[in-house]
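[INFO] parsing input record for glutamine--fructose-6-phosphate transaminase (isomerizing)
[DEBUG] input buffer:
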Amino acid sequence: MCGIVGLHLREPSLYPQLGALLTDMLGQMCDRGPDSAGMAIYGDKAWSKVGESTVSLLDCPVPATELAATLSASLDTTVTGFDLDPTTILHGVVGAADLATAVRSVVPSARVIGFGDDLTVLKGVGNPIDLANRFGLPSASGWQGVAHTRMATESAVTAEGSHPFSVGPDQCLVHNGSFSNHMSIKHQLERDGVAFDSANDTEVGARFVAKQLAEGVDLEKALLMLNETFDGFYTLLVSTADSFAVVRDAISCKPAVIAETDQWVAMASEYRALANLPGVDNARIFEPEPEEVYVWHR
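[DEBUG] output buffer:
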């Protein structure tokens, strides 16, 4: 079933409340996906240090401080890190892609689950609200966040199978539904040189979008191309360093509702996740139309 929530803040005075607002939204969706959860925050100054890149890892075999010391020596720059079990967060004054590449070289068994200049991704198995509180999400600040509660259908219940899938710099994709032709698309992407980390169908969608963005396609066009290429039933929320986008398939049987005010834009699988947002009584509330791409920019 799965549950999606996302919040894009337009009003800077609300930035300190991002984590608390997103935690409340996520808590309303726990019954839609009790298996595992993931969340991504843009702009928290502790999780994504200003002037440094950030890499998020799963299942790192060594403590963050030890890994950071090794990376500092190999990159000839200072790398710092901390553990939020099972996620490890690393920061460095080096390009995000370069830091992620160095991590893969030093700890190839660890899974890079997010990288960028403004993004931190956290994932885990278990009750979503318990995970959010353990990670410290209620105290997070920033300008944009997405989160997902998962009920596994296409792959095993693991932290790496939880959403969001973040496979491009400062990019995230969360998904309610399933792609029916993802294997054929995956094989084509592999022939084009794209590598995969999991057997999850959502990763195929994320890799497809990331490839289009890397080739210079804008986000709206990338999602229109996804609609033309993928079969199945799906609602997607896609975020980048400056954008927040929603798209559904042609049938649109997977629920979604959007609310918009001058201060924020929010999306969730059900209205109850939006009901406590400040000023929601005056929001424009609507259900996204089939195959129409909705994009908001920072």
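[INFO] The chain has two domains: 3-44+136-297, 49-117.
[INFO] shutting down worker
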